[in-house]
Amino acid sequence: MLSFEASRTGDIIPLMDGRALISRFDPSREAERFVRSSIHGSFKASGTVLIVGDLLGYLAGAVRRTFPETRIVSLSLHSDLMTENLSGGAREIYWSPASDPLDAILTGCIDEEILLVQGFALLEWQPSINAFSDTASEVLAKIQRRIRILNGNITTIKAFGFRWIRNSISNFLFPQNFCRISESRGPFLIAASGPSLNRDEEYIRNSRAALIALPSSLSFLRNLGRIPDIIIQTDPGYYASLHLSEAQGMKVPLAAPLFTDTGIRRHMGPVLPVSCGEPFEEALWSLLDIEPLNIPAMGTVAASAIFFSLGLSREPVIIAGLDLCYDDIHPHVRPHSFDPAFSKDVCRTHPLYSRKYRYSRDTAPEQGQSPSLRTYSDWFAGLGEETAHRILRLNPSRIGLPFPPVQAPHPEEISGSEGRLSFQGISVPSFSLRKDRLLQLLDDSRRMASRDPSSPLFRELRLKLCPPGIEADPDEYTAGKILELREIVSSMEET
Q1: Which distant-in-sequence residues (6+ apart) come within 8 Å of 407 by Cβ?
Q2: Closest-CA residue to 184 (of 67, 327, 293)
Q3: Are 60 and 85 within 8 A, CB to CB?
Q4: What is the pTM of this model?
Q5: Domain ranges of the chain
Q6: Do residues 243 and 260 make contact, with C-beta atoms less than 8 angstroms apart?
Q7: Helices 456-465 and 133-173: crossing angle, nearest 10°?
Q8: Residue 482: CB partners within 8 Å, gap ≥ 6?
Q9: What is the pLDDT of residues 78-97, one digit of tens each?
Q10: How many CA atoms lie within 13 A of 124 on its CB side?
Q11: Angle at the Cα of 50 (from 47 to 54), degrees rounded to 5?
């Protein structure tokens, strides 16, 4: 039972079943000692501190006094233990179980820039965690899930940051065939590439829903003889181009943000402009005089396809092949664009199934899930109930997600309205005009290093172009990389 009493300093302190959750003598001093001993090393004083188990603002107050410029996110594990407004204003966020959903709070206050650039510290007040263990376990699980998702994004940024920007530049300059959606109506069927997609062949072949394909499902769909209505592509890496090569001869639209792999230049169909809301991307689309379709940035193309579909119709969206785990030793639907890599050098002493077994054992030891697949399932698990219940998961795998499961009906039972997507071509400025506009944008961005380094555009470029832990000044280093990009653009010629 929660109760309160006065400490020797006159401050009110909480007790749980008669046991004090902070010092009975001087709670503020104990909180300050804890903060000073917990936050040290490379933490930047202007970073973000997330407190789990704050008590009447004692820990948040100690952080504010110790690090005045810090942004504070204070999580109380009981609604009677929350207090607000310690003079930090917009740099303080408070939450208790009676507040808005925690996932939304965490998404809004912890992002890649905070973890990589600004600095982040997590404080766990153990007496509170012990006293409210059930709530604490749920809160900590959501924090861990959010950080796993961000770490997945950070891994992508570290691996593809410079390529991300170069892809955007190339995809801004060269494609000529763009389109917009002129008509859309559901239902929509999304084809992912999990092993269960093989069980849905008849349903996909005969379904009247508009078919939205992830690139990794194209080999299967081509073999099935079903041409998708649109392909969704969001990956900046090499394998995106490999998957997209399976669309050769398919003159269907490709929905893609500018940062995706430059393989879209070789796609025979038109490009549907997509923006994930990042400043550099938004600036480039504005230079093309194009209003892109806005889809939030996601860690997986399957999530992008879901939000794309939900934005076009109020009808439920069916997704097939969203397994997020292996089926025995099989990671993907068959056939798949990775099959040649698995089959390479297969022989009597190195059979295919042995190779697949070793690969599945080494990459997905937990429930047949690789770290990336676990990150994807974490992301889907955090979807709001209203959104999740508009998504129907066909023949679901053993990995639980918040989507209502459905079983594929017999082809003779398939009915309902016909989904439809229609497109209209749009014109874009010439290559030379685009190049001139881009060079000017890069010049303006480079000057931001000294004039406006806190602008959203320069902050994004710094995040993508400046490696973590670099000894050089991050702003000057970023300006140098922008100059390098400008020289690359200057040498580009129309093909």
Answers
A1: 394, 395
A2: 293
A3: no
A4: 0.77
A5: 28-153, 174-426, 430-491
A6: no
A7: 90
A8: 442, 445, 446, 449, 461, 465
A9: 999 987 656 555 578 889 99
A10: 13
A11: 135
